[in-house]
């Protein structure tokens, strides 16, 4: 049923995740991989993006797009630490350089700073808001704390209620860690209750270096050496697999076509041979980068390390950096550096090794580059395979894939 995916990268949109305040945040989440990036700019008095940098970025970003639609993504740190005037300026510059193109904005926030003014602005200007929330209160508050060490669930929920009041479209992004991984259905049902129709679950895998590095960073890049310990919040691979299986079983019987979970969409896309919506599950990557507050461009949000800096937008265009040999090699390495065990795996075309940042384990033969979560992904893909094939078949005959719900219920009987 599958087919070989062929595409010209010059026809694909380029994505840059922009950081208006760098790594600065009003929270102090224990597992945050980005807070410590402040150490890379320790000599800077402010991590706020200047108006000059903002204008250069918006012009260069729009000019780098080979497609008529342009999506801007604003990320943190905490994006709402910039006031409304910053984002009003964003819209002004987008109009100036857009030349009639369709321009959309998405913004990721922890939700604690939302108020009526913010929500009215987002509604009036069609912003898509991503809310970082790890589930119900006992799950969320384990790691997502404020500077005083207190949980932030209640403030986030107030923010979500304001988004709903103003009818602002939002989705949820949840970090799956060593605690909340044990509560899959409670988390899934909670998100349905609060009106999250689009859910993304991001498993956390981090290593803490035992020796100090010149960069001041404690968390290690994937290809770095062996002198580390696994961070205590890292999710267990098999528990992670069961987490997805439990949610999938509920979804496939009752919620197909109504609620959307990123990995389910990506698995179906790869099953039918289409490009998945996320670089995590694609054969190659490299078309989604991150730009720091000062215009420094890095290969990926999870690769903000000195060795992955592509340049600065004040010296090079975004197009030059994103289509440089360096970045093309970074993207191709996702496919080309897979160990033999992955290349021979029955689920290769569904997983594609997942994100390179998680490839910190060794295969049974001692070859490096195996994804830490491999065992969990195998559990998930093996379990979901017949359902995905059923939906792929429905799509082939131009029938709604939601028909799988009736079949799935019969299988349960």
Mass-distribution shape = globular
Helix-strand sequence: EHEHEHEHHEHEEEHEHEEEHHHHEEHH
Q: What portion of residues is helical?
A: 25-40%
DSSP strand tally: 14
What structural class do helix, strand and pairing data support?
Answer: alpha/beta
Alpha-carbon Rg, integer: 21 Å
Classify the oligomer: single chain
Query: Whole-number average pLDDT?
Result: 94
Amino- and carboxy-terminal Cα gap: 27 Å
Number of helices, counting only DSSP H or I runs of 4 residues or more: 14
Strand content: 5-15%
General description of the model:
- This protein is an alpha/beta fold.
- The protein contains 14 helices and 14 strands.
- A ten-stranded mixed beta sheet has the order 9-6-5-4-3-2-1-10-11-12.
- Helix 7 (237-254) packs across helix 14 and helix 8 (262-272) crosses helix 13.
- The radius of gyration is 21 Å and the shape is globular.
Tell me the layout of helices and strands.
Blueprint: E1 15-18, H1 51-63, E2 69-74, H2 84-98, E3 102-109, H3 116-124, E4 127-132, H4 137-140, H5 153-165, E5 170-176, H6 184-193, E6 198-203, E7 207-209, E8 228-230, H7 237-254, E9 260-261, H8 262-272, E10 288-291, E11 296-298, E12 309-312, H9 318-322, H10 325-336, H11 340-343, H12 348-351, E13 361-362, E14 368-370, H13 374-396, H14 404-412
Parallel strand pairs: 1-2, 1-10, 2-3, 3-4, 4-5, 5-6, 6-9
Antiparallel strand pairs: 7-8, 10-11, 11-12, 13-14
